[in-house]
Design brief:
mainly alpha, 288 residues, 10 helices, 74% helix, single chain
């Protein structure tokens, strides 16, 4: 006679518990990192000579935080959750290149449509970014670091900790939508939300669908970090170069009519279409 050993079935985690865990962990990761960076920025705005050292300080904070999330052993009970939430897994170079082209062309298309929309409604440009009074060459490292901080921390927080946790319990589509909504609400303190909150929530959900797809299909936040940080870097650097007279949207409106902007959006969308096909083919066996 053979004996068959049975094991108790693992209970499915409660929906509210998983939702609370995902939301808290995502907001905590994003919030803590951004609080540190904003604190450094406030110090630099009050004392412009401090601007040069905020970049290495923030770089050390990011590296230390990533090392703890991946290899930290305390507390032991959350070690696996922290490592999985970081979602910093290797991605083939070809897949990264497809994601970069797909992501940036999609963002450029959307940006051109939005600028054309503002022009047609007579809304003008955006509120310029407040920067320290310093030569552009000194501002550039801080602008690039600001873009990386936003891209890195938000992707790890919302597409890593939050989305991954929700994927396991609710599936990928609800996970992307919910984490995207929270990500959008996380930005409601920005000035542009006061103008068109419904439009901007739609924009954030659309971008979240793109970045969330990158994270799900590759099981990594690396493509999303590169796309997110790259687009933010282009905007921040442009804003720094144009300060203090004009901001990027206003500058683009001054050199291109809505018709030209929509043509540019169409061309970018065409590139995005083929890049997305290549990305999806490259990751057809890599979704979870």
């Amino acid at each position: 006679m053979t004996m068959t050993q049975t094991y108790p079935a693992q209970a499915t985690p409660g929906a509210l518990r998983v939702l609370a865990k995902a939301t808290f962990s995502g907001i905590a990761v994003a919030g803590l990192s951004l609080v540190v960076w904003n604190g450094l920025l406030i110090g630099a705005l009050r004392n412009p000579q401090w601007w040069t050292w905020i970049v290495p300080v923030m770089a050390a904070v990011l590296v230390g935080t990533a090392a703890y999330l991946r290899w930290g052993t305390w507390p032991k009970s959350g070690r696996v959750f922290r490592r999985e939430g970081l979602r910093f897994n290797r991605v083939p170079l070809k897949t990264i290149l497809f994601s970069l082209v797909a992501g940036w062309s999609t963002m450029i298309a959307g940006f051109c449509v939005y600028v054309a929309h503002r022009s047609l409604l007579g809304m003008g440009g955006e509120v310029p970014i407040t920067l320290p009074h310093a030569p552009f060459a000194l501002l550039l490292p801080g602008l690039l670091m600001g873009a990386f901080v936003a891209g890195c921390t938000e992707e790890v927080a919302f597409r890593g900790f939050m989305q991954r946790t929700l994927e396991k319990r609710f599936g990928v589509v609800p996970a992307i939508l919910f984490s995207g909504l929270v990500w959008g609400l996380f930005h409601t303190n920005h000035s542009y939300f006061g103008e068109e909150i419904v439009v901007w929530l739609g924009i954030f959900l659309s971008v979240a669908a793109m970045l969330g797809t990158f994270a799900y299909r590759t099981n990594s936040v690396i493509p999303g970090i590169l796309v997110h940080s790259g687009f933010d870097a282009a905007y921040f650097v442009a804003a720094g170069a144009l300060q203090p007279r004009i901001a990027p949207i206003a500058w683009l409106q001054s050199i291109a009519s809505p018709t030209i902007l929509l043509v540019a959006a169409s061309l970018a969308a065409t590139i995005a279409f083929f890049a997305w096909i290549s990305f999806l083919r490259a990751t057809k066996n890599r979704g979870e």
